[in-house]
Structures are given as C-alpha cells and as structure tokens.
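Researcher:
Attend to token order:
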Amino acid sequence: MIPAEQSRITAAFAARAPVVPVLIVTDARRAGDLARALVAGGLPMLEVTLRTSAALDAIRAMADVEGGIPGAGTLLTPADVKAAKAAGARFGVSPGATPALLDACAEAGLPLLPGAATVSEAMALLELGYSVQKFFPAEPSGGAPWLKAVSSPLPQVRFCPTGGISRATAPAYLSLPNVACVGGSWVAPTDRVEAGDWAAVTALASEAAALKRGA
C-alpha cells in the first residue's frame, strides 16, 4: 500500500468522529465492553496504545465489536506493525516516523497516522505522500497556535493533534481548518473503566462526538 493510499484511508477513518480515544488498556477482559461503550457514544475509532502487555489482546477483543475500528498506537518498530496487524488492527498510529516503520506499514497494508512535531518533519512526510499526520506531543509542541501558524504554508497537510488535549482545549483545535480530528484519553477515564461504569464512558463519548469541526 503506497503512502498516498494510506493517507486516503486514514482520512476516511478520521472523518468518522472528531475525537479518537487514546486507550491504555491494562485488562483485556474489559476491552470489549469499553469498545462497545465508546462506539455507542459515537466514537468508532479506537486507538489502543501498545504500552501494556494487554494491548494486543485488547485489539483482538475490539475487532469483534460491531461498528468499532480498532487501531494500534505507539507503533515503534516493524515487529509492532506485524503484531498489530495480526491482532486485527485496522490502522496504526506512531509518535514519530522512521523509514523502517513506514516501510513496514506499507508492506503490511496498515494505514498509518505518522507523527510529526516540526515543520521539517511534516514536510518530509508530505514528500513521501502522507498528507494526514499526527501532531505529537501537541500541547508541549505549540498546540493550536502552532497548527494555525502552519496552515498557510502547509495547506496540504491535515493533522490529528494528540498529547495533553482535554475536553476544555479540544474545541480550539477542532476549529482549525487543518485539523481532521483530535486524540484524547479523557473519554475513557481510568477510574470509570476500572469500575466498569460504561454508562459514564458512553456519556463522555457522546459529548466528544458532538464537538464541532471546522472554522
């Protein structure tokens, strides 16, 4: 799969909802219920970060949830890509980008949202065909003002800013024309997930899904 095709598919996924839940799953037994709660609230994109031993099993469980689009976040190596694809991930997200990682995703046919934190990184990815990118870490790297500043010289690139974004700050990002969606963990608070309070998670997801996009 060529990068341009990956970007097209990633853009289509991002268009499903204004917020992509960023999920750190420590118990795969909760993954199915968590996915159903988020999908019920209008958030079908499900980024499970590969930061725990339960992550791949969580992706497998979410792959069986109707309406859900499970993906793997924190992809760092070709081995991560292979494992994520085998687990049922339909997209990948990386904090940055390396030639080996990009090649692995292209070979596996896994649509990738590659990370960039500088104009040079964004330009390099665009040159390779990636017109949809993750801006990470968003808040420490300049936040919404940075994205607003680069929208004129880089109008071809749309971003999914992630990192430090909350319900309070998400609207400022989503109002920008070069923001496709935002990534955030606030829609699945650890205490609500551990308590199995799926009604609360669905309520937070519904609130996030109702956020408006576009200037």
Q: What stands out?
A: The chain has one domain: 3-209. The radius of gyration is 16 Å. The longest strand covers residues 19-23.
